[in-house]
Design goal:
It contains eight helices and twelve strands. It is α/β, with parallel strands linked by helices. Strands 4-1-5-8-6-7 form a six-stranded mixed beta sheet. A four-stranded antiparallel beta sheet has the order 10-11-9-12, covered by helices on one side. It has a two-stranded antiparallel sheet with strand order 2-3. It starts with a strand and ends with a strand.
Length: 275
């Protein structure tokens, strides 16, 4: 699957502004996180970005690039603005498309998956005559991820963890639409052996006899915006699959993560320490 990923605005065009934030920065942060999730976790995904840094690029350059690359899907990430009271998430497809079009079906999937994790009010799925939707030759969607001019929404936008959740929601939608296959879980990172590094606190969100159950737990964690992977351990001759959701050299940070997990409903969580 070839995804053309377009973080809105950039360079001389800051996009919407409010609460000390520029749209161009938030859209880029979300898009870079989305690219990382897709490349790290899924097979057979090629991602071309309209920009990977704070550079100026016209709308025409973006759609021409996507079209000549023959992308399978065009995803534009934006942030909204209005008066201070408007808030929430909405997404757009080209106004010339019918509700039964393939693109409209894709829109519903992206919408549902993003709304599950973004903590924003739902403003619905819409249509518009935007350049990137009209001039792209493949199915195209533009998401407006909150209002930079609203205190609640902007407060979320400032958080890297929220940007990660929004990226995760988009990734989940794309995975459903294109039936993307997960890469095998990577081997756990080696534990630092340098004695000067001291103790490492690993946050374990569940310990399982079956690898399948551990993988299911990882999916649940991903859906709530937590990064996690499996580590194996042997206790009294039995193999256990532990789901690691963070590792910290500082105990307080590890306990913070533990509290976040409990708040999100993961109760079977504990810390282990390695020297
Ligand atoms: Zn925009």
């Amino acid at each position: 699957m070839k995804l053309y990923l377009d973080p809105g605005h950039g360079g001389q065009d800051p996009g919407a502004q409010g609460n000390g934030l520029n749209e161009k920065d938030i859209t880029l942060d979300i898009a870079l996180k989305l690219r990382k999730i897709l490349q790290d976790e899924y097979e057979n995904v090629e991602v071309k970005m309209s920009r990977t840094s704070d550079t100026t690029k016209s709308l025409n350059q973006r759609t021409t690039e996507a079209n000549s690359w023959h992308a399978d899907f065009y995803l534009a990430i934006h942030i909204n603005s209005a008066g201070s009271s408007a808030q929430g998430y909405e997404d757009f497809i080209y106004s010339g498309l019918s509700d039964s079009s393939k693109t409209a079906q894709y829109q519903r999937t992206i919408h549902n998956e993003v709304m599950k994790v973004n903590e924003l009010r739902d403003r619905g799925s819409k249509k518009a005559n935007f350049h990137v939707l009209r001039e792209s030759t493949m199915p195209a969607i533009l998401t407006e991820n909150g209002f930079i001019t609203n205190g609640h929404d902007a407060g979320l936008m400032k958080q890297s963890s929220w940007q990660q959740k929004v990226a995760r929601g988009h990734a989940n939608g794309l995975a459903k639409i294109f039936n993307l296959k997960k890469k095998p879980t990577p081997a756990p990172a080696p534990t630092p052996q340098d004695p000067n590094q001291g103790t490492l606190y690993k946050v374990i969100a569940g310990s399982f006899k079956s690898r399948e159950n551990a993988e299911e737990q990882i999916t649940l964690l991903h859906n709530k915006g937590f990064e996690a992977f499996v580590i194996t351990t042997t206790i009294s001759g039995d193999r256990w699959y532990r789901v690691q959701a963070g590792a910290f050299s500082n105990r307080a940070n590890a306990e913070d993560r533990l509290a976040e997990l409990k708040k999100a409903g993961f109760t079977d969580t504990f810390l282990i320490t390695t020297e």
